[in-house]
Structures are given as C-alpha cells and as structure tokens.
Amino acid sequence: MSAPVRLSRFRWWHVDEVLPIEADLFGAEQWSPAMFWNELASGHWYRIATDVDGTVLGYAGLTVQPDEAWVQNIAVRRDAQRRGVGRMLLEELLAEAARHDVRTVLLEVAADNAPAQKLYATYGFEPIGVRRGYYQPSNTDALVMRRVGDPTEDGTDD
Q: Does an H or E element contain 25, and which?
C-alpha cells in the first residue's frame, strides 16, 4: 500500500460519500441510501477506509448473529483497488466476528467476480452454493461462500 489507510466506524455522514463508489462498482444493483441507513440503524458493524486526507477509499459491513456472521458488503474505489484496502477491510470484519466468538462467516459474491473470490479463498472461504439470478436487474448468480474455523484466525500465514 502506498499511502496509510485508516479504518474507522462507518457513520451516517459517510452514506453520501460511499454512494458514488456504489454507483461506479455496482451500477443498477447499487445499494440505496435507505439500505445503508437501515444497516446502520440496525446496529450492524460497518467500517470505512480513508486515506490521510479523509477521502473514502472503501467500506465494509458485517451482520453478527449468535452462530454465524454475514459479510454484507466490501467495496473499494477502483483507483484504490489492488492496494490492500479490501484485504484490510476483510480482516477487520473477521476480527469482529472473532470478538463475538463466531466461527462461521458467510458471504455472497457475484459469480463473475473472480478477484473477490480469490481474496475470500485466501482467507479460507469455500463455495457452498449458488443463488441463481440473485443480483438484479442483471440476473447474475451469487456464489455463497463460507469460512469455518478458529475465530482467532485471520487467514494469513504470518
């Protein structure tokens, strides 16, 4: 990573800052402001990644339940991709799941998003199913991936 990245709590005032990233990355399938507001109001765990100037580089969210956690989203601005921001966000989500002693973490990823699938596989996520036509309006399938393991593991081989 070239410049320092800061992870902090995703707050309501970040919603307007992430919407252009959503639009660019997800087009017609982007989350609406109301969807972000609902996630925050529901108390789900969200983080935002910023550079030293406070520019939003990416964001990620996690829903923690008693026996499992679901990655709701991980998104990184195109000009900040391949700099470790997504990896940092994923590690932060996995650490939060571990703080809750949750061993099973699941996510859905577009079946045609090979780079994201590769990242998740690096952290022990394995495909367990397909949700046909999950992403609308493109009708793209979602690959369901699951990671089961020691909640203290972070997926790296340090």
A: helix 15-26
